[in-house]
Protein: Delta-aminolevulinic acid dehydratase
Amino acid sequence: MSAQFPVARPRRLRRTPALRRLTAENRLAPADLVLPMFVKEGTAEPQPISSMPGVVQHTRESLRKAAHEAVEAGVGGIILFGIPAVKDGVGSAADAPDGIVQAALRDLASDLGDSTVLMTDLCLDEFTDHGHCGIVTPSGEIDNDATLERYASVAVAQAAAGAAVVAPSGMMDGQVGAIRSALDSAGHQDVSILGYSVKYASAYYGPFREAAECAPTFGDRASHQQDPANADESLREVFLDLDEGADMVMVKPAGAYLDIIRRVRDAVDVPVAAYQVSGEYAMIEAAAANGWLDRDRTIMESLVSIRRAGADIVLTYYAAEVARRLG
Ligand code: PBG
Structure:
């Protein structure tokens, strides 16, 4: 064996932090991160969420402050979730002009102007007394087409209050088309749609049910959200949403679905988002609290992996913290 062997030494480029930085294939940037925020109607103090340490249900005032700080840190956008004081069967508070999401949007739009991208989750589950994402029939099924009419109205209310992007997350068939046409008819041609196109029926949403107070009172979401066993179906959902007018598409959850993010990224020419959901956050926090994982490293590795899989935009509860760390 000659003294020169081996000629190829991949370790040369890993030798110093500077070399590793120079040759990194993927980077996290604050502008790629979107912060999901919860705002609760009629609460005097921010409410902690026990399964998501560090995340709160904001008051309107505390939301303004935290949103301002996140934007200062450089996050690319904010996606808003609302918890109304009163819920009913059709989720009336979701499209009420003075509903909590609309009120909070107006606050943020006036504080932040065009300095960030204001997005809204567009669904009914936070607003219905049964916790389902749509209109429930007497036999307990979700009525797809009656739900579309509600989504259309919610989209118009959110756009009127200042949402630049609406993100329908209810997995009803035809939701993007119904929303696009309602927005256009109401003069909101410039409001974009980020489809939660690929949304699995996932146990990783567990902590969110506490955060948004939307655990279904009966049944589950498996009749409309996707089976974790399926992959090809995701492309079908993505292409349907694009045909209906989606401007961007999302894969959710992120960490357990990196293969799906990659397949979607390779198949489309629009921005692809991925959502690191509440359960992904809770797992990192729980393990770190026990001293079982290095919290900061795990956060950064989980996020760069989602970027490496192909996501252009990452929704994460760590957005503001990581944006600050990246400086
Ligand atoms: C529906 C919605 C959910 C999440 C975002 N939008 C819950 C669900 O579909 O059951 C989950 C987000 C998370 O777990 O962080 N409004």
About this structure: Residues 28-326 form a domain with the TIM Barrel fold (CATH 3.20.20.70). The mean pLDDT is 97. Residues 144-161 form the longest helix (18 residues).
